[in-house]
């Protein structure tokens, strides 16, 4: 299904990972990222096939953008950084990833402060 859709979309080279997208080591993705050149577009069947997390996804797409490479998801409408609206959507994703990182940082800081006071949890009982 995925490979057929990529072929119909005109992809000239298809890279595959046999492991879950949640795995840190992904040979197919690494090969694809090394293969791509400025002016190319990385096409995925679905956006969750690319990133392990929102932050990872945004990082990969930002790296592509900095190298002059576009990104497009076949099944996620608007996920095409070669268009103005797709680029806007990814800027919003980037802001959400930054927000998520800040929340994690704040929670960690609050938890450490509570632990330093000898309390079990910052949540009310």
UniProtKB/TrEMBL annotation:
Listed InterPro entries: Recombinase_CS, Resolv_N, Resolvase-like_N_sf, SSR_resolvase
Keywords attached to this entry: DNA integration, DNA invertase, DNA recombination, DNA-binding
Resolvase/invertase-type recombinase catalytic domain sequence ranges: 1-119
GO biological process: DNA integration
Molecular-function annotations in GO: DNA binding; DNA strand exchange activity
Keyword set includes DNA-binding: yes
Superkingdom per UniProt: Bacteria
Classification via PROSITE patterns: RECOMBINASES_2, RECOMBINASES_3
Gene3D superfamilies, sorted: Resolvase, N-terminal catalytic domain
Annotated Pfam families: Resolvase (PF00239)
Family: Belongs to the site-specific recombinase resolvase family.
Name this polypeptide is given: DNA invertase
Native organism taxonomy: Bacteria, Pseudomonadati, Pseudomonadota, Gammaproteobacteria, Moraxellales
Gene from which the chain derives: resX
